[in-house]
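Chapter summary example.
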Amino acid sequence: MHLITLAFIVIAMSHHTFRYLLFVLLMITVVVLLPVAAVTMSLTPTTVQPSATITITILNLADGSDFDLSLSSTDLTSTGQTWYNLTNFAMPFTLVNGTMTATGGNLDRIALYVKKASTGPLYSVEATGNGSVNVTAQQDVTAGTYSYILINGDIHTASQPVSIAFTADGTTKDVPSTAVLSFVIEGASAGHIRVLARVNGTTTLDQTITITTQMRRSSNGGGGGSAEPFITGSTTVPELTPIIPTITAVTTVTSPVPSVFPVTPTTGSTIIDWFIGTTLGKTILVVIAILLMGGLIAIFLKTR
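The structure predicted for these 304 residues follows.
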């Protein structure tokens, strides 16, 4: 009923007013269809030695975006029970209503420790299971440098590979124009880490880091050049001392391993995505459609 009333109001408008309104609607339509600057991310380097720094540069990320960053591995060579030890983790913005999740396959126990620089343990949570375990800590992930984000756990079957995943997600706040997220990889001496980042459900980064202790200099002139892995050869992996923080609060849970990495094809985002994907956007589109319908009716009546 309200929609019909609105249509008659449009019909009752003067011809001059309607032309002005129609012009405004056309401008709104053009703006809706214009693409906004797409979020872009880059990761360097992709081949590293243990204790190397990984840098992720993020452009055009807006406040209020749904953001998640995931790291996953299935072939890591670790020291003792430590699988991930991400030190000097520099977070350039805050994730409101954030969560940090650690997931393990072929583990009977998994523990997640997160400590922000100059403070006590921010998160300390542990879970037990029978080969599949995961823990989630819910708290805002505030901007700043974290001393470490550490995941360790007990292997279920020694002859089988262990899968590990870590995810941080939430709603972005106070994002700089160029956001640089970085961390140092400790605890693993060889293997691969897949880094996956998504913004509003769209994959914006999907790269794999290779960790190796065999590095050589490329031969393209001079003493410089980028580091590359050896194709053959072996080495003795030095023993690393894992960082085991004091546990201040432990929660024991048993839960299945969720699907951590659904992959969405990378696409450019437009303002129309917001109109289609939100209640307010849909309402605005309905109002525009009603006004256009009323305008067409008015034009039809004037031509009779």
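To summarize the output: The chain has two domains: 2-36+270-303, 40-229.
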